[in-house]
Amino acid sequence: MHTSKLEFKTIDITTIECDCIVNAANRTLLGGGGVDGAIHRAEGPKLLEECRSLHGCKTGEAKITKGYNLPAKYIIHTVGPVYSGSPSDEINLTNCYKNSLGLAKKKNLHTIAFSAISTGVYGYPFDEAAKVALDTSANWLTENSDYRMEILLTCFDDRVYKSYSNYLKNYSGNN
Ligand code: AR6
What we know:
GO terms for molecular function: O-acetyl-ADP-ribose deacetylase activity. The chain is an alpha/beta fold and about 180 residues long.
């Protein structure tokens, strides 16, 4: 018997004690601004050194490193799409969530906290990104119902929190 969970809340991802946090990285995996910058700042040079050995990451894919001094045991680095308005954006963003969850399962991890991938510098509209994050996470839990996974979607920006709330409100209204 196990209980999987899907929730969202306003929290700084670098403070979360869990099996893994998901960083919204870029294709170099060598750090940047936003949540990526915050994670690298909180951790320091050892993370950067391990990231160098990974030789980058394609959009929609995910790679894992240790969490070093962060409270999370591991960091999954995924690369969201730079929003362009084309159908490939949704496919790539969906793959970020799916591949991160798949990697966490492969590593036998059971608690995962996501940043709101692509909703900052990469310009993905909040409502559309919320739909992808919530639908993909919920579908993954259904498809992997034999595995316990607790998913937390972090919202650092109030507009992200509002989009998650609104999507769920409309969702329950339709059912
Ligand atoms: N904890 C949780 N969420 C955060 C934090 C934090 N400490 N800081 C920011 N966010 P962004 P992207 C939220 O720009 O759009 C970097 O330079 C933020 O409010 O970090 O995928 C990379 O190196 C927003 O909702 O990532 C790439 O070059 C969300 O995290 C590029 O930015 C994502 O915003 C990736 O852009």
